[in-house]
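Troubleshooting log. The previous structure file for this entry was overwritten by mistake, so regenerating from the original sequence record. Sequence copied from the archived sheet and checked twice against the printout by T.R.
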Amino acid sequence: MKITAAVVREKFSPFVIDTVELAEPRPDELLVRVVASGMCHTDLHGRDGYFQIPYPAVFGHEGGGVVERVGSAVTEFAAGDHVIMAFPFCGVCPNCHAHMPAHCMDSVKLKGSGTRADGSTLMEKDHAPVYSAFFQQSSFGTFAIANERFAVKVRNDAPLERLGAMACGMQTGAGAVFNAMKPDPGDAIVVFGVGGVGLSALMAAKLAGCDPIIAVDVQESRLELARELGATHTIDHSKESDVVGAIRRITRYGVKFSVETSARPEILREAVECLMPLGTAILLGSARKGTEVSLEMPLLQDGRAIRGVIQGWSEPKKFLPHLVDLMMEGKFPAEKLMTFYPLAEINQAAEDAATGKTIKPVLLMPH
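Regenerated output below.
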């Protein structure tokens, strides 16, 4: 079927709105009418060639929509169901068997090859392949193909335009707190970088009863929103010359948990140095291969730990409906992070995301 999609024709080139042909769903797949798709820096990394996806390509990995049709073997979904398309996983590797699909050993291939697992493409233009299946969805289009395993059914009374954005960044930030840290009330936490991921972690920390909750950023507008969402203290990294010292003045012993979202080595070092003994630094920022950080070994000898967390250690079919419930109860006000753009303005959305003007761009699909 013909769909409208945002196509990247070559590395570093802009998104171009075009008509492409979408494959028919296989027996274990869903055809989803995309209502909205979040955009995060991973999509911009895809546009700019961080992955091995050939061009032309369609990105997008935070899609929310309505099931249009289901394949003959699908049992969990029916036409009309509201769904979030979540991250892919193989289901058979040791980590998947251990209920840790976010760390699936085939995840890199499934997310960033541009094809289904068997190498087939989902889209074409003039009988030539358009590489898609980004995170096994490519949601920057009016319709998408999703595997039954990766789709998550959500309540029909929740506003779909807000839900897709939960699939990656918000799930990552909130899940890092709820699933990986599991803090006790009164545990001190600091979040370095309060964009979409960091603010999601901050909102989860507030729900978990963390205190103090410290937000660190270089943009006053983001620090202001962090205070609105639950930060008890904020630090402007562009003005404070000793961020670690400032955190220790607030907490005396240091924090039990730190969250690092920027993937900058010097910031990760601060995230470790501000920990109390036995504290844990959670790395959520996505660094390019070859990025290194140096640390003083005594920091780790005193029981401090560094842990990388992908996708919030989430089992999406359980965790995403929980986040949606929290949003609907007003406890996880995800909409305060979002700015909405029509698909035709995708390049403006990308620019606003890159400059920090917008925290979480959400693209609304034309239908």
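The mean pLDDT is 96. Archived copy saved in two places this time.
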